[in-house]
Amino acid sequence: MNDIDAWVWWLVGAAALGIPLVVTAMPEFGMLAVGAVAAAVVAGFGGGIVAQVLVFAVVSVALIAVVRPIAARHRAQRPQLATGVDALKGKQAVVLERVDGSGGRIKLAGEVWSARSLDTGRAYEVGDEVDVVDIEGATAIIM
């Protein structure tokens, strides 16, 4: 045990912190692993144990303090490019078969969709241009 240099132990610790990173997908373990690698570099250059632990703590805390808020902000943002049914909301469509509260058909983005009116008392006739306000399953909700 005493024959192994301190930098090797720090690398073993970094690898050990990488395992729960992969298993739990918690990025904090990765940041701690980077701190352990930084401590291994200090140990490799002959730094004492106090310097090693200090570098480990500073690098780990700095990464967590800086990277975590950025990651949380990115996770909370909605994608700027709407895809799938989200991209169809707000589009205009043309009524192909009379649409009322119980159903009908529209042409939306070049495809024929089943549709129903948002206002159940309102009906749209063939040729009317309507706005898609929501998509529920395979049915467009129009007004």
How would you characterize this protein structure?
Helices cover 45% and strands 24% of the residues. It has three helices and five strands, in the order αααβββββ. The chain has a five-stranded mixed β-barrel. Helix 1 (6-24) runs antiparallel to helix 2. The N and C termini lie far apart (75 Å).
Low-pLDDT parts are none
SS-derived structural category: alpha+beta
Widest sheet: strand ordering: 1-2-3-5-4
The total count of strands amounts to: 5
List the helices and strands and how they pair.
Elements: H1 6-24, H2 27-44, H3 49-76, E1 92-100, E2 103-108, E3 111-117, E4 129-136, E5 139-142
Helix pairs in contact: 1-2, 2-3
What structural keywords apply?
143 residues, alpha+beta, 5-stranded mixed β-barrel, 3 helices
Summarize the structure.
By secondary structure, the protein is of the alpha+beta class.
